[in-house]
Amino acid sequence: MPVVAWNRCLLAMLLAVPAWTAAAAAEISTRTYAVPAGARPHDVAADPAPGGPVWYTAQRQGALGRLDPETGEVEQIPLGEDSAPHGVIVGPDGAPWITDGGLNAIVRVDPETHAVTRYPLPEDRGYVNLNTAAFDGNGVLWFTGQNGVYGRLDPETEQIRIWDAPHGRGPYGIAATPRGAIYYASLAGSHLARIDTDSGEATVLRPPTPEQGARRVWSDSRGRLWISEWNSGQLSRHDPASGEWKAWKLPGERPRAYAVYVDHDDKVWVSDFGANAVLRFDPDSERFDSFPSDRPDANVRQLLGRAGEVWAPESGADRLVVYRYGAGGE
Known about the structure:
This protein has 330 residues and is mainly β. The protein has helices at 3-16, 19-27, and strands at residues 29-34, 41-46, 54-58, 63-67, 74-78, 85-90, 96-100, 105-109, 116-120, 130-135, 141-145, 149-154, 159-164, 171-176, 182-186, 191-195, 202-205, 214-219, 225-229, 234-238, 245-249, 257-262, 268-272, 277-282, 287-292, 304-306, 309-314, 319-324. Strand 4 (63-67) and strand 5 form a beta hairpin. The radius of gyration is 20 Å and the shape is globular. The two termini are 33 Å apart. Mean pLDDT is 92; it is low at 1-23. Monomer. InterPro entries: Vgb, Vgb_bact, WD40/YVTN_repeat-like_dom_sf.
């Protein structure tokens, strides 16, 4: 393309970018990291320490990946035959904990030795399609299974207990509030549920939008729950203290909200399959910033972060992306 034509094209692109997007781009930096081809990273979890390792589930290769964000070096730790890891989080012990659908087990990997410990689910439960996990305020791991269950693992006793979910299939995303309360989102059931961590009983909380496809959930610093609605293309918020619900439609013609995460500044991040982008929502101004991927069908299925950083696994592009904001974006 001639230089003049290229400059005109670039100018047209810049003029088409909304002012708020340009401002967001100025304050947020991004960096991408390639992972092994075919890994299809599903979930990601950054060690809370600045500059610490970043873990990801290599779902198609039955492994847990470890990224050194300083050097870009990647190492993958095999989890066992038939492994197909879905979720990963860093526990209170500093270790990555994995919900492995292929193994039908919770898996812990020692962050130093990389020793793999498996906690198989009770055989009489069969295959539950494990999805995601969260630790409550007492250090107990709670997890979801899309085949209609949720459960808990006590790391001290290694005891696992499973409950049938109200309304059956669908438990997917799960999160803890700052006070340690546990909530999960039911994709097939289109609801949010609060788990009583003492009795294990789940109470269903229905968003105002019917059949919205609540997929993932995260808490802000005030204990309000933010939910990504896959079917409706909305980001919704539930305040347990007041019982209030509120929802915002993602920008664009056909939004598909998948992942949701609230950062340390209480800004809400959500991935949109429809726009092939990661969005940042400011609850004060009620405005979205958009960060489109430069790869087609990036398919960001989960978001997680640490102070100054939000990490996204692009499962369709075999890479991880970090968005650095505030001091981290300078």
